[in-house]
Write a structure and sequence with these properties.
Helices cover 78% and strands 0% of the residues. The protein is mainly α. The longest helix is centred in the middle third of the chain and has 18 residues, at 25-42. The relative contact order is 0.17.
Length: 93
């Protein structure tokens, strides 16, 4: 798969199927950030308040971890591009 095809597929995913399933990315990432922050604080692991954009970047790292330890499934690369794009979009809203 060519790089542009991966990026185009990521765009289709985040504006199509996943948007329909999970709703607005900023609202979804805000809810996740609040839950992750509460968990990390309750466990005394970090005293932190994550932001919606952090969720996307942490998901990128999750996908990087999967690539590093697993097979090079093309979906991981699409997801990395998609999460990065969503985080970038949230910053500029």
């Amino acid at each position: 798969m060519e790089p542009k095809e991966i990026i185009d597929a990521a765009g289709d995913i985040v504006t199509g199927d996943r948007h329909e399933k999970y709703g607005d990315a900023k609202e979804n990432f805000t809810a996740i950030a609040e839950l992750w922050s509460a968990y990390l604080n309750a466990k005394h692991l970090l005293d932190v308040q994550l932001e919606p954009r952090d969720v996307g970047m942490l998901m990128v790292l999750l996908k990087v971890g999967r690539v590093a330890t697993g097979t090079h499934a093309i979906d991981n690369y699409k997801d990395i591009a998609g999460y990065a794009g969503l985080s970038g979009g949230i910053i500029h809203e």
